[in-house]
Specification:
Blueprint lengths: L1 H4 L2 H4 L8 E3 L9 E3 L12 H17 L7 E3 L5 H6 L6 E5 L18 H17 L2 E4 L2 H11 L6 E3 L22 E6 L3 H4 L1 H10 L5 E6 L3 H13 L4 E6 L3 H10 L2 E4 L8 H9 L3 E4 L4 H4 L7 E3 L4 H13 L2 H18 L2 H17 L4
Parallel strand pairs: 1-2, 3-4, 4-5, 5-6, 7-8, 7-10, 8-9, 10-11, 11-12
Length: 362
């Protein structure tokens, strides 16, 4: 996200200037200021305070030599301290996932770190109610936060995560070797991506021979899945694990199907990249995914947490006529070009920021 936003300084330097304050020292660009912060392990539940306080302290330092029209926090929670302690310009916060807002008293025991997430939910809600403006990554997430946190829709906007669409080669022709169908899974959180459901769905489709490539999760998180997939189901696995974007794009160009049957997803950027490449996409109808898939027009959708529904969607994708596959791929690429092109989104983002800055008492 930060690297995309930095393009403001390249594309709109005549009118705008962006500075980035980050705890990630890897971003070695002009106008990027890195800082360090420390949160004792015993106070991890107060990380928002330590992190937010570090941001606030360093913002005040920058204000000694710079003047800003707006301050945008990539995570709305970290903007709460700056808002509460008063800086005289609009404080804007981004919310890019629904993992915290989805936690409640009924389900927190079932989630890893659920008690901490339940506490964090209250902090996120307070931040959204206090900040001057909130940016979400999908229409779904906006409606979800309205329901869960009473988000004021008049003080919010949707800013899709963008990609450099036109740098991606469109390659819609797949399934060149029907003797082995290559399926690609991309998700750091394999539990949310539901890798188990995918393996079970592939097992149900015994009439086909599959090779499954897994990118994103560390091996320790999926070791049990790899074991029964290989030893019990005799499924061929190409485990890559955490990988740079270059490897992700390489695999998106080489596989036959991208399948991420997520149970929780505010948008699903991997699906966006998949559509740009032209790989057939099979995924779930949950969260913001239907927005990316144009409600099934760009690929195949199934029910979350349902290996049987997933197997049926995969079968429909595999057995679809080449003309149907090509049509969906072409629609997907056109859709991504129109809605997820990074440069177009940046222009819209700047127009919205101008409106916020110009609005009295923003």
């Amino acid at each position: 996200m930060a690297e995309n936003l930095l393009k403001i300084n390249e594309l709109h330097s005549e009118k705008h200037e962006l500075y980035i304050l980050t705890a990630d020292a890897k971003l070695g660009y002009h106008n990027v200021y890195a800082f360090k912060y420390f949160c004792p392990k015993v106070f991890r539940f107060l990380d928002f305070w330590f992190h937010g306080r570090a941001y606030h302290k360093n913002i005040k330092k920058l204000l000694e030599t710079h003047e800003f029209d707006a301050i945008v926090f990539g995570n709305a929670i970290y903007g709460l301290i700056t808002k509460l302690f008063g800086i005289n310009c609009p404080i804007i916060g981004m919310v890019n996932d629904d993992h915290v807002a989805a936690v409640n008293f009924k389900n927190y025991r079932k989630m890893p770190g659920g008690l901490g997430l339940l506490w964090l939910r209250n902090i996120e809600k307070l931040a959204i109610l206090k900040l001057d403006f909130v940016i979400t990554c999908s229409n779904y997430l906006t409606k979800f936060l309205e329901a869960e946190y009473h988000l004021n829709l008049q003080n919010s906007m949707v800013f899709y995560q963008g990609i450099d669409v036109f740098k991606i080669t469109f390659k819609p022709i797949r399934f060149k070797n029907l003797n082995q169908i290559k399926v690609l899974f991309i998700k750091h959180r394999a539990d949310i991506g539901r890798i188990e459901d995918l393996v079970l769905a592939l097992k149900r489709l015994g009439q086909f021979n599959f090779k499954l490539t897994i990118i994103g999760p560390p091996e320790v998180a999926v070791g049990h899945v790899l074991t029964y997939a290989k030893e019990i189901f005799n499924l061929e696995i190409n485990f890559i694990g955490p990988a740079p974007q270059s490897i992700v794009h390489q695999q998106l160009g080489q596989n036959d199907i991208l399948c991420i049957p997520s149970s929780l997803e505010a948008l699903g950027l991997a699906n966006v990249e998949g559509l740009a490449h032209g790989i057939p996409v099979v995924t779930t109808n949950v969260g913001g995914i239907p927005e990316v898939m144009n409600y099934g027009q760009n690929g195949w959708l199934c029910e979350p947490g349902n290996p049987s529904s997933l197997a049926e969607a995969l079968k429909k994708c595999i057995t679809a006529l080449p003309e149907e596959k090509l049509e969906k791929s072409q629609r997907g690429r056109t859709f991504v070009e129109a809605n997820f092109n990074a440069q177009t989104l940046l222009s819209k983002f700047l127009m919205q920021l101008e409106k916020i800055v110009m609005t009295p008492n923003a």
